[in-house]
Write a structure and sequence with these properties.
There is one protein chain. By secondary structure, the protein is α/β, with parallel strands linked by helices. The chain folds into two domains: 201 residues, Rossmann fold; 183 residues, Glycogen Phosphorylase B (Rossmann fold, 3-Layer(aba) Sandwich). The chain is 43% helix and 16% strand. It has 15 helices and 15 strands. The strands form three sheets. The chain has a seven-stranded parallel β-sheet, sandwiched between helices. A six-stranded parallel β-sheet has the order 12-11-10-13-14-15, sandwiched between helices. Strands 4-5 form a two-stranded antiparallel sheet. Helix 1 packs across helix 15, helix 8 crosses helix 13 and helix 11 packs across helix 14. The radius of gyration is 21 Å and the shape is globular.
Amino acid sequence: MKIAFFTNCYKPLVNGVVTNIVSLKEAYERKGHETYVFAPQVEDYIDQGKNVFRYRSLNLTSKVKYPIAIPLSLRARKVITEFNPDIIHVHHPFLLSSQAIMYGKKLGIPKVLTLHTQYEKYAHYIAPIPEKLTQEAIKRIIFNLAYKIDCITTPSESMKELIKSYGIKNRIEVIPNAIELNSFRQKDELKCLEIKKRYNLKEDDKIILYVGRVAYEKSIDKIIEALAIIKRKGVSNAKLLIVGRGPAMEELKELAKSLQIEDEIIFTGEVKNEEIPHYYKIAYLFTIASTAETFGIVIIEALASGVPVLAVKAPGAVDILTNGRDGLLVDNDVKQFAETLEKIIREPELRENLSKGALKTSEQYSIDIVSERMLNLYREVIETKNQNKI
């Protein structure tokens, strides 16, 4: 089978959507299928792999490094015609989705759309348009696009319900994101020691980990405030390791300073993808306080590493975690977050039991299993399309 991906973000950007697309592409190719990625150019980045077409792009905002594709290219038409895909998989409802719909119609092939993100939660990045107006416009765009698509997929039941609330009536399938589990299960002791040495971490430090964009909607400030609370209560061996970069970094550093815990928090900045698994392996606990997720692939990465997760009860986390089995779920309240954080640090036996559960939960998110589910959906959609032509 030949699959064309249209995505508004791809390597070298680091986020859950990119991780999922890369994982699917690699899994498909291991199974003997071909995938061609159509994505925006990223300044000073040259693709090493094959079958990637880059649209010219520009940055519309200085708040975040996120190149925006210019969805016009005569060469793209030649590339996709020669590739001659069996199906088009659209990974965003904006910009390149228009190109994907156009080529799908011209080639007479079905189109699948994956809605990875609660896009209205990111409306504040679009200035100077009022946030509420932007949110309504986003919902309308998704609503109008849905009826040009043969099937919608989304990674969680929570996100499916949100999509249905837009008034969309066509088919929606829940297919979770997935990862290559072995990448996170294997431990390289030397690499782990190097990371600890790099950040001057002690052997008895309980490392609280966050991995992802350092952005306002991720609510990292709540994790920092919770750390300050438990420090005041005498938990002296906890360190917060924030892995990633983003527009909120300086503000969060100032918050840590104002709470007098700047020495307890390490901002690593951007880390290479191949190094990320080693950071999980030195972690005692993974934390996520965001309410803007649809799935949270970093949660799966943590679980596959045997690291329990402390999360706010919100879409994404509640779709993956079972409270008390593989992680701990709390209300969106800093004091409760802090109390639970202190509990797991003071009770290593609890952490050990959750770690075992984390490994077990992660098994259902193997990319080999999930990619086959997506391929089966492609086959079904293609067959239905062909039957309708008769």
